[in-house]
Amino acid sequence: MEWGFVVAGFSVGWLVGLTGVGGGSLMTPILLLFFNVKATVAVGTDLLYASLTKSVGVLAHGRLGNIDWRIVGLLGLGSVPASFVTAWGIGHYALDSEVVIEGIRFWLGVALLLTSLSVIFRHELMKSAQHEQHLPRPLVPALTVALGLLLGVMVTLTSVGAGALGVTALLLLYPALSLNRIIGSDVAHAVPLTLVAGIGHASLGTVDYSLLGTLLVGSIPGIWIGSHMTTRIDEAWVRSVLAVILVYVGQKLCLPGWPQWLGAALTLGLLVAKGVSDARKKRRNRVAAQESAR
User: Fold this and answer.
1) Is residue 62 packed enough to be buried (19+ CB in 10 Å), middle (13-18) or exposed (0-12)?
2) Can you give the pLDDT at residue 3?
3) Is residue 292 part of a domain?
4) Taking residues 46-68, what's their average pLDDT?
């Protein structure tokens, strides 16, 4: 057994349990950059890994009644066919060709950069769930199917997007829905999507089953430990570090010609500015509360 993969699985599982950020945002880049796993194999293996680990979350959310199956069905209506077509398209290229490898690296980088934004602005997105519906209601089902189509392509190509990006888009489409039901519905949709995409990759021979088992050995205890440490570790700091890492890796993959420090430096600046702004808002709210109590 390769203990490096076990440690990677544990680390990703721990972060998923602690922050809720999808494993695809972390596992695929780790396999690609640190272990030099082929791009197609990294994506295919991570897709089946995600389908198995997220299945546990579906059971939990289902028992709590946190799944809107209508939303899941609309997302699947777009994502499942899109996943089949994307896997078919990948299969029509030589899997080790420069076109496939560079395409996966580029779109993986884009997905990581988008995920980093959802990580940074998590609380603002949560607040948006309390706002009124701004989109015309008749358009929402069609837009949900379109979102599923987009996620189907992105997840099959990069293994990233079913988690943080899916939740972000659903918050905008269904602002009146509780956050728990948004997350539960997103997880419920992610399982069949990653499974279908993983099977598509398996049919192409781009799944390493030995690697999959080794990652699960580390990730299962990691998820359990991380989920039990949420009250002991300041999640905001963990998310800030995670956002910087995602930007650094995302830029490295999709913009390799740019200075590597640039993205991380800009992200740090954004986090500092956001922290100062949040602190000022809390101070104003505290002063207003004290004045109203007098």
Assistant:
1) middle
2) 85
3) no
4) 82
